[in-house]
Structure formats: structure tokens, C-alpha cells
Request: fold
Amino acid sequence: MSYSEDEMKLKKILKEIINSTAGLKNVIIIDDTGITIMSESKFNFPSEDDISVEKIGAIGGAVFIAGQEQGHILGYGDISLQITEYNKGFLFSLKIGKGVLCIATDNNVQVGYIRALMKKWAPLIAKILNNYLQTDQGEINKELKDLFSSDTIGML
Reply:
């Protein structure tokens, strides 16, 4: 598989992030629709667990878009950083240009460190990602936003 220069830069950054501290499981870059662009994992999951990076990305993207819309409805504005805490870990999501950076961790991580790590790498990832992704995703993004809009909920 041949990687472009942008892909190699992103891969290098993801490796640096995943190896920066204990407790990180997956680092995923998704586009605004939840499609996985690139990922790096510390562990390979057994196939019987049916866990995949694509599923994490798709669900993480949907949750991020829904949270973003919720912030607008409440008048809070855009999400700076979304942290979802589960019984067995965290999912951190940060908007980066035309995509979202997601980091899945276990419970034994320093939340402040993960936040700082994401904020550190976000500008560079956003710059590379904006060059890497196509610019004609506007219609898909509008459809996703409309899906989570409060005006469409009444139609159900």
C-alpha cells in the first residue's frame, strides 16, 4: 500500500500519540460524517468481540455531531472537547478542521494529559487533514446536522 505524504505525516502523529502514555487503546481520525480516515491501535481485538475501529469512529462521529447540535440548541456554541466516560474507559473527541480526533482509553489515564495531548496535536492534524480531505462534503454534513436538529425530531 502506497501512502501519500499527508498520510505518512498523519500516521506518524498517530503513532506518537498512541505511544505517549499508558492506557491509550485507539487513536482515530474520522471525517465529519464518521468515516474512519486513519487509526492507530495498541491492541488487536479478537474477532469474536466484534469491536472495530470503524464502529468506534462511526458511533463517535454521530455522538460528536449530536453533542455539537445540542450545544447550539442550548446556546453554548461549538464543542471544544467532548469526553464520554464509560464504566471501563473514556472516549475523547476533538474537532480538528474537517474531521474529528478520537482517542479511546482505559480508566487509568490522566484526563488533563489527554486533553493537553489532543490540543497540542490538533492544529497540525487539522492542517494536514484539510489538505487531505475533499472539500465537497458540505451536503452530507448538512444532512447529518439536520438529522440531529430539534426541528426534525417532531416529525417522528
User: Anything to note?
Assistant: The CA atoms of residues 45 and 51 lie 7 Å apart. Helices lie at 5-18, 53-73, 111-132, 138-148, 150-153. The first strand starts at residue 24 and ends at 31. The chain has a mean pLDDT of 84.
